[in-house]
Write a structure and sequence with these properties.
The chain is built from 4 helices and 7 strands. The chain is of the alpha/beta class and 178 residues long. The protein has a single domain, classed as Vaccinia Virus protein VP39 (Rossmann fold), CATH 3.40.50. It is globular, with a radius of gyration of 15 Å. The N and C termini lie far apart (33 Å).
């Protein structure tokens, strides 16, 4: 698979690769914050019916172009998280911006003042649309999982750096459509 990096779009990095090769991901899938499309294209190539969304116009174009370059069919939409999304999905994937910013002016690059606001919004909205959620969490901005007593959280894999640990988290929802 060929992924072209694009100006103004988050480049695939170690965190992106944590999402690849998850055996259970099949069927209808949505990736929130698709960036270059590396995760989206990986699952499209495995036969998933995938929708990719991003708040950034540059990222939407980048994902779409990378899909065409690789001969993959992907539905790409510009929106913020699940805004305007009515479909139901088997899996929702989100590699969020997770760095805190005192002035979180760009939701494409910052995770909010605490660093986890985007993740909280993803979980809140995602459980209305998805059976299973996958997201990345930084040890510098963990969420209070006890707040979500009706959801089941499991850590899948992680990468440790000198300054933080990034963990891929799987969440079983109580989505009503199952």
């Amino acid at each position: 698979m060929t992924i072209k990096r694009c100006d103004g779009v988050y480049d695939p990095d170690d965190d992106s690769y944590l999402f690849l090769n998850i055996e259970e991901i099949k069927g209808n899938v949505i990736e929130i914050g698709s960036g270059t499309g590396i995760i989206t294209l990986h699952y499209a190539k495995k036969g998933c019916n995938i929708t990719a969304v991003d708040i950034s116009g540059e990222a939407v174009v980048c994902t779409r172009n990378n899909a065409v370059k690789n001969g993959l069919k992907v539905n790409v939409i510009r929106t913020n998280l699940f805004d305007g999304i009515c479909n139901l999905f088997d899996f929702c994937i989100f590699n969020p911006p997770y760095l805190p910013s005192e002035f979180p002016d760009d939701p494409a690059w910052t995770g909010g003042k605490e660093g986890n606001e985007m993740i909280k919004s993803f979980i809140k909205e995602g459980q209305k649309h998805c059976r299973i959620l996958y997201y990345l969490e930084s040890s510098t901005a963990p969420i209070d999982k006890e707040y979500y007593s009706d959801l089941k959280f499991n850590n899948v894999r992680s990468i440790t750096y000198d300054f933080e640990q990034l963990t891929l988290v799987r969440v079983e929802t109580n989505a009503k459509y199952r």
